[in-house]
Write a structure and sequence with these properties.
By secondary structure, this protein is mainly α. The protein is 71% helix and 2% strand.
Length: 255
Amino acid sequence: MPTAPFFRRIDVAPAYQKVADAIEREIVNGRIKPGEPIGTEQELVQQFGVNRSTVREGIRVLEEGGLIQRDSSRRLHACLPRYNKLATRLSRALVLHEVTFRELFEASMTLEAASIQGAVERATDANVAELADNLERSEKVVADPAALAELDAEFHVLIAKASQNRVLQLAREPAAQLFFPTTEMIVGRIAEGGARLVEAHRHLLDAIKRRDKEAGALWTRRHLQDWRRGFEKIASLDRSVEHMYMEHAHAARRR
């Protein structure tokens, strides 16, 4: 007698998740544009044929994901998912996989090179103005490692933005968030670290202004190699991100 086939149980998504998924599809597919209203809670209750608590829970899921927000009158509007929310989730995944700084460095070589190439080709006057403003502020805080690290992270976000490639903007952020604490560590321990960082930014901005791909690629490599040399003075590239930051946090608490 033939054996009966084995079937897995069917998981039925809760109603609030179905509400969230339906609204998300409309936003992602472009049928609801960023800034356009979603409707009131009561309107959504009527459209979906569910109770108010189900709609509220679905809205909460979308708000946490950055796909909708409320204005001052509490009305709901669509918005683009915030890069930092997506990046934070992926950064946690990288940490859990015990990625090393060597892996981050190698991946960033590719992503940052693509970002500068796109920026050289497509940066607008507004993009150049944002980068110039960042550089001016950076020059004023060279002696402040924490402030300079913040501005360094912002500078590279602005380069990715200037590439006009949203996939690149999203792709580089998880690794960039894991790199971020190391900048303050390096600049704080190496006397010339801050000045070299600002110099590299100055050359990168100049390459974008002149539409010079070779200079952009050259200074991106130099900038990242500078990070590598600085990092290797304080730790091994083969250290896992998780272990190093745990040790750093413990040391900070002891201080």
